[in-house]
Amino acid sequence: PEVVAASFVRIRELQPAHRVFLNLSQSVSYERFVGKAVSDDAYPKYLRGCDVVQYDIYPCNSFPDGGERLHLVAKGLDRLNRWAEGKKMLGFAIETNKYTKPGTEGSRAPTAEEFETQVWMAVVHGATYLNLFCHSWSKELDPKKDLEVSGIYPHIKAVLPRITGELKSLAKVIHSPTVKDKVAVTPTMGSRVDVLVKELGGATYILAVNMFKKPEKATFAVQGLEAGKVEVLFENRTLDLKGGAFADDFAPYAVHRYKIAK
User: Fold this and answer.
1) Measuring CA to CA, which residue among 14, 93, 13 is closest to residue 52?
2) Per-residue pLDDT tens for 187-224?
3) Helix axes 72-83, 112-124, angle to 10 degrees
């Protein structure tokens, strides 16, 4: 940490306006990661040496049961935000292929749905930019024929325009101040739905993600709003807000984005 902090000071001296970026490993959320060389006490010290911090964990590539562990994305971002005391720009690196070497047991690329879940899970837990990890040592596909230069698998590449379009359309919302304690979520089927709540242009926005690979029906209680229509963005449907609450169904790892106009 001391070396990182000293480097940060030196960069500031040479280029005062330069933003310093720091990437940390998957041990931020997965404590048993082999090679972990720092303790929880050291992480806040590392974060003193940067303006922008991200970490990477690639569940589907790293764990045989990675499809059950997407929640680790959120766990690490929550820790980064706590260690940074909410004063750093947060980001996250997302897997876009099978990057591991041939023969790595249990390793695979994320599905398009798992990729999308990681995107919105990261946003809901504080990431304001995303880094797509697109290098690969895998020979699962022909690099010249299937991967081109980017290394992003075709099924991920196919959904990128839609996902990035949705992110861009909500960029001002995502970068606006977070509203705490306005929305209370009650799950009814044993999963967990996490939310990010924003207010912009007189409307309340709720970005919601089912954190686990199991179906859920959640009720959202919204303070200060009694009745009206809830627009489910990008899905061409609406819900009724009655008595300050509305409910919605979530498939495993599903994401819903809501807008309630005053």
Assistant:
1) 93
2) 999 999 999 999 999 999 999 999 999 999 999 999 99
3) 20
Per-residue tokens: 104: 């790595």
Q: What is the pLDDT of residues 136-147, one digit of tens each?
A: 888 776 666 665
- Residue tagged 């996250």 (tokens): 92
pTM of the model as a whole: 0.93
Note the residue count of the chain: 262
Strand runs labelled E in 201-244: 203-210, 216-222, 228-232, 237-241
Compute the radius of gyration of the chain from its Cα atoms: 20
Beta strand 52-56 pairing with 89-95? parallel
Confidence of residue 23 (pLDDT cuts 50, 70, 90): very high
Closest CA to 42 of 4, 87, 92: 4
β-pair partners for 220: 185, 246
Q: Which residue type sits at 180?
A: K
Residue 86 backbone phi and psi in degrees, to 5: 70, 15
